[in-house]
Every structure is written in structure tokens, then in C-alpha cells.
Design brief:
Blueprint lengths: L7 H4 L2 E4 L15 H6 L1 H7 L3 E4 L3 E2 L11 E5 L5 H15 L2 E6 L9 H8 L11 E2 L21 E4 L4 E4 L14 H17 L3 E4 L28 H14 L6 E4 L6 H6 L10 E2 L2 H4 L5 H14 L7 E3 L8 H4 L5 H13 L3 E5 L49 H5 L5 H14 L1 H5 L2 E4 L5 E6 L3 E6 L5 E3 L5 E3 L4 E5 L1
Parallel strand pairs: 1-2, 1-13, 2-5, 5-9, 9-10, 10-11, 12-13
Antiparallel strand pairs: 3-4, 6-8, 7-8, 14-15, 15-16, 16-19, 17-18
Helix pairs in contact: 6-7, 12-14
The structure holds 1-deoxynojirimycin (NOJ).
1-deoxynojirimycin binds next to loops.
């Protein structure tokens, strides 16, 4: 049985709910919070321990909730605060935790802070955002480009003749994290939700909220994006850690740490217990499904993370192509192997809704596209088997729905459920150390703890594995062996 040494978030399997597409209680075509309430039995049955909800806060939805117009209230279309509290209460009763998405890097241009900031050069909150004069020829103050579309990250506000910085859309102005009042205001937002009972935050753009104070040009030839992982952001994370550390039971910070260098990733853990609890590992998410590539990412992660730090693993999220398509060429054998790796590594796995079904990326006809950055194919409604009415995005094809898969013991869904149950009942899988074992080409074998070995044949050839007593693994077969 699992040891008592671990915190809940180290034992947990997290499940990301993209609210708009999870479950729709009022049949308006858009998922909502009561829809999640109605499906908690399913999530319990599956065996997940905590939910990460995509943004619940008030938003004009230029970037689907990631443009926040009010941090302290819930989007009416999701059911408002009453529905949120209902969900929180139901989760609590089941021992399931609720983590919400928090967007500290930027607000909506509709947020009262920005409305005030843009009103006049001398406005009380002018310095809460990043304003600069354009160059005399009208060009932006530096060469930074925004993440969406690569257009300049500066927009002129004619009323005051200055430009403001936005890492994303012009409707998402960046907050100025050098301003002490901004830091205080965001602490208050964290406390508002912690007091309500959330188990923590998935922090949007957690790696890059602080911008170069002197706004220097990015080096020629380098990507000119605004989002650079400056060490100054670590200090902000230490501050947030202190805020959450004042709460019992333990609350967590789960960072969207979009860096491809694992030693930089390690930096977000600080000394291991003073910054983020969990930092998403994008090199793992973007790895090819190849034994050497995955093994290398995992070994390096294990090597660079500071002592008490705990890895976080995911294969999909709402910004990237779903893993069965991106990594697995739509081949279910491969997706089963990838899922097995995700759920047996040392660290906290995060499932994206639909991962449990092996749901592939959907093809969205041009006229039905909704997202300005082309991410709709990863955000389509979860197929419950008949429960959506005129959904905001079409349902994808190529995967059996929840009801159908539940009835089939060999389905992807039942594999996922069995893996979660196995993980929960195995101290090795929850808490045991990771060690690579020798393996033939194309095969990845690791030991967890004292007595559990995971062998994944990530190749098209059968593989004879000495370490498993000469057992032959079929192409893409994986096994978990206890000795
Ligand atoms: C990362 C979020 O995951 C993404 O969906 C969003 O567009 C950007 N941050 C901007 O908030």
C-alpha cells in the first residue's frame, strides 16, 4: 500500500477539464460547471483525484477565459459563483480536489484595472501595465513580438499617445510585475480563492510574468517573443508559495512552465520546496514516442530537479495537438503505450479530458473554427454518446464515446481506469524511485521502487527482454511486472 510520506498532490492523478467542452447541463452547446457536477460519478469511477479547471473567471472570451475581466467572480455562462460553490462542495464530499486556472501575466482590456490604466498618463493604475512612448517614427519601443501571430507586442492607445505591451492579443495587456501594488493585488486574488476552498492554482505563463525591466531588444536571430524565463520570476513564485503555504490542508502551485531546457525547468522548483510544487514538463510532452528520446528526458529530469522536487507529466493540453495524433500517428497501440508511460513514471500525471478515451485531434472545417490560434481541434466536446446539442465546436470523429467504452473491458478507457487503480494500490508506482534498466533497442524499461518494472516496446518489432526472463513483447506492447 502507498506510504504515508507523500503529500496528496504527489499521490494524485490530475485531470484537466476544459469546461466549454466537458459537459453541458443547460443544453446551450457550451459546457458549464453544473455539467461537471453531473459527471463527478464518472470521474470518480475513472479514479482521478483532482480536477484542474480551465479558467472559470469572467472573460469576454477573446482567448477563451485567458483574458480575465474579473478575477473574483465566475463566468455567468458557466453558472456563476453559485455553480462553482456547488461543484466545490460536491468535490469536497467525494475527497476530490479542485484546482483553478489563474492568469497573472495579463488581464482582459475590459478589466477595470486596465480601463483605469489607459484613462490617462496620470491614472492611479497607469503603472500597473507596461506603457512606453513609441519611437519618433511611430514604431514600437522594442522588437518584441506577441505570441499569437508574431505581430508587434505593442499597441498604440491613441487617447494618451503611448503604447502598451501584450504578450498575446492586444485585448490581453500584460500586467507590470515590477509594480508592488500589482503583486499585492494578485496575492489578494489567490487568497480570495484559497479562502473559498480551492486546492491550488494552475498558473498560466508561470515562467515569464516578469519582463526585462529595461525592455531591451531580444538578440537578433533569437525569437523575439516577450515571454522570456527571467530569474526575477522566481521571486514572484516564492511570494506566491508563501501565500499558499499559510493554508491547511496543503494547497499547490502547478506552473505552466513553457521552457524546453530541463535545467531551466528545474529553476522553477527553487530549492525544491519554496517555489512551484509542480512544473509542467514540455520537453516530455513534445518528445517523440521513441524509447531513447523519452528515456533521456526522464533521466535528465530526474537528474536536474532539486532534492525534494516532484515531477509533473502530461501528454496533451488545450494548446497542443492531442497526443494520439501528435505522438502516435493515430495508432491505438502506440497511444496505449504512451498512456502507460504517463501513468507509471515517478511524479504527478495530468490527464487532459479525452486522453482517457484515446481521443485524437479533431479536424475542424474552416467555417466552424473559433480559436484565433488554430487550437480548436484539441478542444472539441467529450463524446458521452449522444449528450451534446448543437455544441460550440463539432464533435471529432475516430473515437468511441464514454458509454460505449465503459461497456467494453478492452477499451482504451478501461485500460486507463485499470492503470489508475494499479497506481493507487502500488507504493512503488506512487512513491518509488525511478531507475532505467538495460533494454534492447526500441525498448524502454524502468524500475519503480524496489519491486516494480515497467517495460515498453516502442517499436514495430517484437522484442525479447532478458530482464523479463526472456519474455517477448509484441510491437508497442507494454507490461508492468511486480517481483
Ligand atoms: C497559455 C494558455 O494555456 C493558453 O490557452 C492561452 O492562450 C495563453 N496562455 C495566454 O493566456
Amino acid at each position: 500500500m502507498p506510504s504515508g510520506r507523500q503529500s496528496w498532490w504527489q499521490r494524485a492523478v490530475l485531470y484537466q477539464v476544459y469546461i466549454r467542452s466537458f459537459a453541458d447541463s443547460d443544453v446551450d452547446g457550451v459546457g458549464d460547471l453544473r455539467g461537471i457536477v453531473e459527471r463527478l460519478d464518472y470521474l470518480d469511477w475513472l479514479g482521478v483525484d483532482a480536477l484542474w479547471l480551465s479558467p472559470v473567471t469572467v472573460s469576454p472570451d477573446r482567448d477563451w477565459g485567458y483574458d480575465v475581466a474579473d478575477y473574483n467572480d465566475v463566468q455567468p455562462g458557466f453558472g456563476g459563483m453559485a455553480a462553482f460553490d456547488e461543484l466545490l462542495g460536491d468535490c469536497e464530499r467525494r475527497g476530490m480536489r479542485l484546482i483553478i486556472d489563474l492568469v497573472p501575466n495579463h488581464t482582459s482590456d475590459q478589466h477595470p484595472w486596465f480601463r483605469d490604466s489607459r484613462a490617462a498618463r496620470a491614472a492611479p493604475r497607469r503603472d500597473w501595465y507596461i506603457w512606453r512612448d513609441p519611437n519618433p517614427d511611430g514604431s514600437p519601443p522594442n522588437n518584441w513580438r506577441s505570441t499569437f501571430g508574431g505581430t508587434p507586442a505593442w499597441t498604440l492607445d491613441p487617447a494618451t499617445g503611448q503604447m502598451y505591451l501584450h504578450s498575446f492579443l492586444p485585448e490581453q495587456p500584460d500586467l507590470n510585475w515590477w509594480n508592488a501594488d500589482v503583486r499585492d493585488a494578485m496575492d489578494a486574488v489567490l487568497r480570495f480563492w484559497l479562502d473559498r476552498g480551492v486546492a491550488g492554482f494552475r498558473l498560466d505563463v508561470a515562467h515569464a510574468v516578469v519582463k526585462d525591466r529595461e525592455l531591451r531588444d531580444r538578440p537578433a536571430g533569437a525569437a523575439e517573443f516577450v515571454l522570456v524565463d527571467l530569474d526575477e520570476t522566481f521571486a514572484v513564485q516564492r511570494r506566491w508559495r508563501k501565500v499558499v503555504a499559510a493554508y491547511e490542508p496543503e494547497r499547490i502551485l502547478l506552473g505552466e512552465t513553457w521552457v524546453m531546457d530541463l535545467s531551466r525547468l528545474a529553476g522553477f522548483y527553487g530549492s525544491g520546496d519554496d517555489q512551484l510544487h509542480l512544473a509542467f514538463n514540455f520537453p516530455f510532452l513534445f518528445s517523440a514516442l521513441e524509447a531513447d528520446a523519452l528515456r533521456r528526458v526522464v533521466e535528465e529530469t530526474e537528474a536536474v530537479l532539486p532534492g525534494p522536487a516532484w515531477p509533473a507529466w502530461a501528454l496533451s493540453n488545450h494548446d497542443v495537438v492531442r497526443f494520439p495524433t501528435r505522438m502516435c500517428d493515430g495508432d491505438e497501440r502506440k497511444a496505449r503505450a504512451a498512456l502507460t508511460a504517463l501513468l507509471t513514471l515517478r511524479g504527478t500525471p495530468v490527464l487532459y479530458y479525452g486522453d482517457e478515451l484515446g481521443m485524437p485531434q479533431a479536424e475542424i472545417p474552416r467555417e466552424l473554427e473559433r480559436d484565433m490560434a488554430g487550437r480548436d481541434g484539441a478542444r472539441t466536446p467529450l463524446p458521452w454518446n449522444g449528450d451534446w446539442h448543437e455544441p460550440w465546436l463539432p464533435l471529432g470523429a475516430g473515437v468511441a464515446g464514454v458509454a460505449e467504452q465503459r461497456d467494453d473491458p478492452d477499451s482504451f478507457l478501461n485500460l486507463c481506469r485499470r492503470l489508475l487503480a494499479r497506481r493507487r494500490s502500488s507504493a512503488d508506482l506512487q512513491d518509488g524511485s525511478y531507475e532505467t534498466l538495460p533494454a534492447p533497442p526500441g525498448v524502454w524499461i524502468f524500475r519503480r521502487g524496489e519491486g516494480t518494472r515497467v517495460a515498453l516496446n516502442l517499436s514495430d518489432e517484437p522484442a525479447e527482454v532478458d530482464d523479463l526472463g526472456g519474455r517477448t513483447l509484441a510491437p508497442w506492447e507494454s507490461v508492468i511486472v511486480e517481483s
